Structure formats: structure tokens, C-alpha cells
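Q: I'm writing up a methods section and want to include an example of the input and output format. Could you take the sequence below and give the corresponding predicted C-alpha cells, formatted cleanly so I can copy it straight into the document?
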Amino acid sequence: MSKTETKDEIIQGLMTTINNLNEEISLLREQVAYLTQKLYGKSSEQTPLSGQISLFDEENFNSDEDEDLPC
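A: Here is the clean output for your methods example:
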């Protein structure tokens, strides 16, 4: 083997490595985009369950408040 063949082989190997890494980066970016959408997307906001009362239910809050006031 001559020095030229060795350099060409090294260059070819490095080009293959670069292409493989670029493909992997592309796949990882797709995964990050998908998981970000899944985590913060529209479907991640859940509606309250039926029968669940609000923490600041005004009807109950006002009735309790009236009982504590002196006449």
C-alpha cells in the first residue's frame, strides 16, 4: 500500500462515519421533536374529571364566608 491509498481509505472511512453521525443526529432530532410535542402539546392538557370540584368554587366559598361574619 502506498501513502495515497492509505489517505484515501482514511478519508473514505471518515466520510462514512460523518454520514452515519448525521443520520443519527437527524433521528435524534425527530425523537426530541416528537417527545416535546407529546409533553407540551395540546393533548397534554387534561380536562378535570367529572364530579371534581374546583379549588376556588365560589358558591361554597361565599356560603362559608357568610357564616363566619358577625351579625
